[in-house]
Amino acid sequence: MKKRITSPPIQENDPVLTPYYKDAFGKTGKDLKSSLHNIIDDHNMLTYSEVWQALKFTDQDPHNQDHVILFYSGKSVEKRANGAEDTNWNREHIWAKSHGNFGTSNGPGTDLHHLRPTDVSINKSRGNLDFDMGGSPNPEAPDNYFDYDSWEPRDSVKGDVARMLFYMAVRYEGDNGEVDLELNNKVRNGSAPFMGRLSVLLAWNKADPVDEFERERNERIHSRYQHNRNPFIDHPEWAEAIWEYKK
Fold it and tell me: What parts of the sequence cross the membrane (predicted)?
């Protein structure tokens, strides 16, 4: 497997993003979480149908513009191979849509910051499992492990998973009639609006730093589609400032 090229976090003197995050600098815990929520809250919302075309651009293979990279398997496949058959790719909700029962509604159900193209059959295997370590290798993508209550993605996207879930827990706070999503340190969260395991996600955020693909994806979502950013891609250290601060 190729070693990923990582990118450093955005610095406070960055001429483009410092104004975007100016209200968040210097804060921790609930104050930081609240500030980031206010920054990323209002954005353009796609329909679930529009997500198909968006993913073909956000997750485009940098070496083949006619392909997308599938999230769990890492395979490069034709963009036009999307659909519902097991041999197709489809739209995977990293924050399982049953965790909070938001379905495919505009907002959490169509938010590109946690939607990724995946093999249909692997998507079915993951189902609505929480994230944790351990289990048996997935037959189609043996770098991923799963058991009855959790899913462990391949090493090169562990941090991506964590940062997507951090984003969802900050963006969706229950205001304006939206679901309130929160992270906890459990698995088997069922239909409750929770995802875990938080301690594992924090470890993954450190072990798998932001890379160029993840950074470019964030830029594409911001500039072309939703016009908001995932703060934890720009500042991965903010995850610990929010959640470890609470211990």
Answer: none
